[in-house]
Amino acid sequence: MSAPTQRTTSRIGLELVAISFVILFQELALIRWLPTQVRVLAYFPNLILISAFLGMGLGCLRAGRRSLLWLWPVSMVALVATAWAVSDVVFTNEEKSEFLWLLYADVDRTTEPVKSVRLPIIWGFVASALTFIPLGQMIAERLREFRALSNSLWGYACDIAGSLLGVIAFSVSSFTGAFPIVWFSVVVLVLLPFFVVRRALAAAYVVGAAALLFCIVRAEKAELYSPYYAITTQDHPTFPMVEVMTNRSWHQGALPLSKDDRHPKPAIRKWLRDMREDYHLPYTLLAKTPKKGLVVGAGTGNDVATMLDEGVEDVTAVEIDPALHKIGLARHPNKPYSDPRVRVFIDDGRSFLNRTDEQYDLIVFGTMDSLTRLSALSSVRLDNFIYTKDCFEWAKKRLAPGGGFVVLFDSYVADHIRERQIAMLADVFGTPPRVHPKSIDGHAMFFAGEAFSERLEDGPKRADPLEIQSIKSRTELPSDDWPFLYLTERGISDFYLSLMAAFGALAIVSAFAFSPQLRRSALSGGFDLEMFLFGAAFLLLETRSVTAMNLAWGATWLTSAIVFGAILLMVLLGTIAMAVRPLSWTVSVVGLLASLAVTIFVPTNALLDLETPARLAGSVLLVGAPVFFASTCFALRFKARRDPDAAFGWNLIGAVVGGLTEFLSMAIGLRALLYIAAAAYLAIVLLRARSKADESAPA
Questions:
Q1: Comparing C-alpha atoms, which of 374, 368, 371, 377 is closest to residue 44?
Q2: Is there a contact between 77 and 86 (Cβ–Cβ < 8 Å)?
Q3: Phi/psi of residue 637, each to 5°?
Q4: 550 — phi, psi (to 5°)?
Q5: Which of 197, 497, 632, 644 is the most buried (most CB within 10 A)?
């Protein structure tokens, strides 16, 4: 019998790169795909991030024990098949029913709703975590092999490099418009070599992979994928309108808005007249036709078509999603994007306002993402940093003398959202805005600026100054630090608290179940506070960065990709630095605290003034610098642990707690999260100093 083949570090390193690639690629694919099926998951962008971290960590705790490789195809098929099965189930909050007409516009209204959104959210957390457990075990076992043959830090470098490649590859696939079948096929193919070498698993893997891809194909209902949405379009069966659905939720309709158009059917002609009066209303309130107009959130082109029909000579249209612009270019009845008077910028609206130096006679904010993702349960969405005082102030700066500002919003909003819009505009422009009541197409309108300051006998009336003072006294106005227009008040609701408790309990129970060393550590009274704080602070930095970077890049999977990429790049550099020339504890701590101070005092909105390459570099530095030094500090302290498995378990529990701590931003704001992370790292420094003092004290 021949001797078993000796595995080389290059072979192990290549396997580490491949598995880590799959972990990040799969994580981003699930972040993007799951909300298109289980729609309430769209309100919790960090849910999959935390569950992936938990699952991978649990898998690492299983290193050296019976292989769980079989669990990957089983758990993936279960996750995808279940998501597909419940994709048409209407989940609604016990006290709210807005999902019935927003998220589920494509579902029969007679469908009996399930009056709980906690169920699919907790299911998503658990089911997603299970898919990462076998991958985490595979990573940990190869890191052990690498450590036995070479410097373990180079093994970690391979791990991080693979993760970084996963982020890059998924970003490329999304921007090329690839469908989910491509995403999941990549994952299946990269994992294939790990299964075919074991004959008993090979057949099961082929069957599982085929079932997985079958479910993905059958669940697919989109016509195309933009960098932000799964999109379908259809001609309305009754009215002359092209309907656009994003993630299977109604988003917008492209309408014929020219006042000269006529329809032969009286009922449709009346409907069109009412719709056109709604869109043209702002221009009836102006003393003269604007020469230069700006539409932020131009979508398929309704507001642009209206400007052109009113005779505006120079129109700038800003739309973040290139696919929506292309749909408008090809299918809008009035063809506004083909008009030579229109300049189109595919850009985030907030970023454009910060960077442009042009001034406009009229600025219109379209309804943007509020149409599809408005909910009493929402925290951060694509449009969150649009509806803040800071953004309204930038809009005011871009108005020409005598200019006007129009904010369109969904009319089914709660009173607190309407009131905040009024109070913000009053604060920014110094006078109460004019407010148009709910209208036929579902829009509320707010008018501010000198163009709407003339005394009008008819038309929308100004908000009551006494009402505005009352609003300011009882509610928080959204800002870049607290961008939560949709929340009823500053604070964490019972709904979020219950989910935080459920996720935290699941993480603690599962960590103790998976790690005998952790159980022994706890039973002997050995709570590793230092490792716990390292985990909590690190994932708090990561999840807070995802939320904060929404300002620079929009609240989408793309933000997650940029944050993950920045963090992974800095962890990779930190790992290589520790392998080549280790930094001292003092240098690492000083660098960590200094970089945290820069992150705290340099506002994220400063990135908006930069062009895309510079903004990307700035994001990497702002997010990544604290992570670089945090990783070197962690490496130095983790290396000193006598029981690394128990230490990793405490670190994992801390990480989940830190990820959930991000929800505190709804009460204390985004910047305060950095204070918590800084306090955790300061506590680690004090613990380290105390342990050194104890070691040097005479016996």
A1: 377
A2: no
A3: -80, -35
A4: -55, -30
A5: 632
In single-letter form, the type of residue at position 115 comes to K
- Kindly give, in sequence order, each residue whose CB lies less than 8 Å from that of residue 412, ignoring residues fewer than 6 positions away: 98, 101, 374, 438, 442
CA distance to 42, 87, 504, 621, per residue, from 126 (Å): 16, 18, 12, 33
Secondary structure of 343-408 as H, E, C letters: EEEECCHHHHHHHCCCCEEEEEECCCCHHHHCCCCCCCCCCCCCCCHHHHHHHHHCEEEEEEEEEE
Tell me if 32 sits within 8 A of 47, measured CB to CB: no
Contacts of residue 678, defined as CB under 8 A and 6 or more positions apart, other chains included, come to 593, 596, 597, 600
At 673, is the secondary structure helix, strand, or coil?
A: helix
Q: Identify which of 452, 458, 457 has the alpha carbon closest to the alpha carbon of residue 434.
A: 452
Geometric angle at alpha carbon 484, from 51 and 605, rounded to 5°:
90
In sequence order, the 6+-apart residues with CB closer than 8 A to the CB of 487 are: 378, 379, 493, 666
C-alpha gyration radius of the chain = 27
Q: Which of 494, 480, 587, 589 is nearest to 534 (CA)?
A: 589
CA distances from 371 to 121, 366, 368, 382 (A): 22, 10, 7, 11
C-beta separation of 256 from 339 below 8 A: no
Backbone angles phi, psi at 561, to 5 degrees: -65, -45
Give CA–CA dist 59/75, Å, rounded. 14
Residue 364 phi/psi, 5-degree rounding, is -120, 125
- The torsion angles phi and psi of 4, rounded to 5 degrees, stand at -65, 145
| Rounded-to-integer distance, Cα 157 and Cα 173, Å | 24
Listed residue (467, 435, 673) closest to 475, CA to CA: 467
- Phi and psi at residue 669, to the nearest 5°: 95, 170
Distance CA 144, CA 53 (A): 19
Q: Amino acid identity, residue 147? A: R
The SS3 call for residue 61 is helix
**Beta strands of 571-650 (E only): which ranges?**
none
- What DSSP character marks residue 108? -
The pLDDT value given to residue 443:
67
Confirm if 439 and 445 have CB atoms less than 8 A apart: yes
**Residue 89 per-residue DSSP state:** -
pTM (2 decimals)? 0.88
pLDDT at 272: 86
Q: Which residue ranges in the chain fall short of pLDDT 70?
A: 1-6, 45, 94-103, 105, 109-110, 151-153, 369-383, 410-414, 438-443, 454-459, 525, 554-560, 693-699
Helices (H), 176-197: 180-196
- The two beta strands, 360-365 and 292-296, are parallel
**DSSP letters for 269-305:** HHHHHHHHHHHHHHHHT-SS--SEEEEES-TTSHHHH
Give DSSP secondary structure letters for 536-563. Answer: HHHHHHHHHHHHHTHHHH-SSHHHHHHH
Q: What are phi and psi of 441, to 5 degrees?
A: -90, 10
**Quick count: other Cβ atoms within 10 Å of Cβ 168?**
16
According to the model, what pLDDT value does residue 457 have?
A: 59
Which residues, including other chains, have CB under 8 Å from residue 693's CB and lie 6 or more apart? Answer: none
Q: What does the pLDDT read at residue 385?
A: 82
